[in-house]
Amino acid sequence: MVVTRAWRNGNASERDFPVDRVSDLIGADDTFVWVDYTDPRAADLEQVEEELGIHALAVEDAVERGQRPKLDRYRDSLFLVVYDVDGLDADGELVTHEVKAFVTRQALVTIHGADVDTGAVERRLDANADMADHGVPWLVWGLLDAVTDHATSTVEDIERRIDELEDDLFEHGDPRAQQIQRRSFRLRKALGVLRRQVVPTRDSVASLLHGDAETISDGIRPYFRDVEDHLQSIADSVDQLRDAVSSVLDTNLNLASNRQNTVMKKVTSWAAIIAIPTAITGFFGQNVTFPGEGQWGGLFASLALIVASSLVLYRVFKAKDWL
User: Which residues cross the membrane (predicted)?
Assistant: First the structure.
C-alpha cells in the first residue's frame, strides 16, 4: 500500500496520486512530496529508484530487514533508518518497528511494515502546517519527532514498572523473589535494546544538523536541536534506569540471602528447643534408678522440666529475634 502527498508553496496541493507522477511534480522547484510505503514490493522500490534517482545501495538496504539505526549519505540523497518504539508487550519485551526513509531535496519516501501507524506523523505535520515552507526537512522533522515522543512514553512506562518493582521488594510477606528477578532482567534487556536504538538515532540527528547546513535552514534548525536534546535526555534516562534495575537486582539478592539466614536461625532455634525434651526423656529412659521412678510425681516433674526448659529457650531466641 502507498500513500502520497504533495505540497506546493508551503500548502498541501495533492494527495493519493500515482508514484509515477512524482518526477513530474518535483520538476517544479516549489513542490515537494511524501511517498509512504507499507510493505512495498521490490518493483515498488525499483520505481522509486527510477523516479528519484535513489542510489542502488540504498535501495538494497531498504529491502533488507533488521538494519541498524543509521544515516547514510549518497550524492543526491540520504538513507535514514530509525525504529518506532511501541512500548512493552505483556511479557515485558520491547516492541519496535523498523522505519526506513529516502530523503532527497524535494522528496521523502518512508518504508515500513503494517504495524507502523504514520497517523501520528501526519497529525504532527498538520498541527505545524505553518512550517511547511521548510520543505522536506519539515517532513523529516515530523517523522523524527513522532519517533522520539513514542520513545519518551516508553521510558516513562519502564520507569513506572521499576517503581512497582521497588515497592514489591518490601511488601509485607513473601516478595516473590523469582518473579521480581525475572521482571528485572526483562526490563534490563528492554532498556539495553532501547539504548541501542536511541543513541544511533541521536547521532543521526546530530549529523543532519552539522552536515546538512544547506538542506536544513536556520528556521527549522531549532526543531531538530529539540529532537536531539530529547533523544539525549532519553539516553541519559535509560542509563539511570539501568542502574536502578541493577540496584533492584542486588537488593533482591540481598533480601533473599537475609531471608535464608532468618530461616536457618529459626531452624537452629527449634532444633535447640527440641533437643531439650529429647535429652530429658533420653535420660529418664536409662535403666538406672532415679527419684520418682514409677510414681506420677516423677512423670509430672519431668514434663514440667521439659516445658520450662523449652519456654526459657523460646524466650531467649525470641528476644534475639531468631524466632
Answer: 267-284, 296-317
Distance CA 71, CA 73 (A): 7
Whether residues 272 and 252 fall in one domain: no
Backbone angles phi, psi at 288, to 5 degrees: -130, 160
Q: Rounded to an integer, what distance in angstroms lies between the CA atom of residue 145 and that of residue 78?
A: 18
270 lies in the same domain as 135:
no
Q: How many CB atoms lie within 10 A of CB 248?
A: 21
Closest CA to 151 of 187, 198, 201: 198
Residues 220 and 123 in one domain: yes
Count other C-beta atoms under 10 Å from residue 64's C-beta: 8
Q: Report the distance separating Cα 273 and Cα 307, nearest Å.
A: 10
What pLDDT is stored for residue 110 in this prediction? 93
Looking at residue 136, the DSSP 8-state letter turns out to be H
pLDDT at 317: 66
How far apart CA 23 and CA 5 sit, in angstroms, is 13
Alpha carbon distance 164, 257 (integer Å)? 22
Domain of residue 279, residue span: 261-319
Whose grid coordinates read 540527528?
Answer: 205
Same structural domain, 106 and 186? yes
Is the separation of the CB atoms in 41 and 49 below 8 Å? Answer: no
Q: Which residues contact 111 (CB under 8 A, 6 or more apart)?
A: 37, 40, 45, 62, 99, 100, 101, 102
pTM: 0.77
pLDDT means per 10 residues in the chain (323 residues)?
Answer: 88 86 86 91 85 87 88 89 90 90 92 88 88 90 93 93 81 64 86 93 90 71 93 94 84 70 73 70 55 60 74 72 60
Q: Which residues contact 48 (CB under 8 A, 6 or more apart)?
A: 19, 35, 54, 59, 102, 109
248 and 270 fall within a common domain = no
